[in-house]
Amino acid sequence: MKNIALLFLLLFSQLYYTQSPILVIQGKVLDTSENIIANAEIKITFNDSTIIYKTNASGKYGKINLPMNEIYLLTVSCDTYISKSIIIDTKTDFDLADSSPITDVDLPLQLNSKKNLKKRKLSKKPYLVGKLKIDQKLGGLAIDYAFTSKQRVLYEEAYQKAMR
How far is CA 93 from the centre of its chain? Predict the structure, then answer.
């Protein structure tokens, strides 16, 4: 019996240490006035696969477990809001030896209402607004400020133009 328990312990510990690290994301979806958006769709696309989640009555979603060493596109949408997408790059600069088994990310998302738009072009497709990537110095994920700042300016310009 002792040998079986020892064998089980050895197999379990081997499985634990050979599993790929995971990214655990969770967050809340709000509008620009900080109002909760319930039933917003959180769609995660990667490698020709799609996973869909919904926010609860408090606007919260997660905990979504995603294997590291992939590039994900997270899109949040809701009927009366402009859809937005974020790239989550856990592949570029990925190093298994330096990765912790679990990386937790709190990812709050904010949507603009379609209500006051004069032109509907902006609201027809998700707008890419940011990127998270591996930061070797921090040992986790961080905002890609150069990419996100550029995308934010493009989004704001398009949004203001659609309001006219």
Answer: 18
What digits encode the pLDDT tens for the residues 11-70?
444 444 447 899 999 999 999 999 999 999 999 999 999 999 999 999 999 899 999 999
pTM of the model: 0.81
Distance CA 46, CA 49 (A): 5
Between the two ends of the chain, the Cα-to-Cα distance in Å is: 76
Distance set, CA 131 to CA 18, 27, 108, 143 (Å): 28, 16, 13, 6
Contacts of residue 120, defined as CB under 8 A and 6 or more positions apart, other chains included, come to 114, 162
Q: Rounded distance, CA 17 to CA 163, Å?
A: 53
- Residue reference for tokens 């379609």: 114
Three-state DSSP class for residue 156: helix
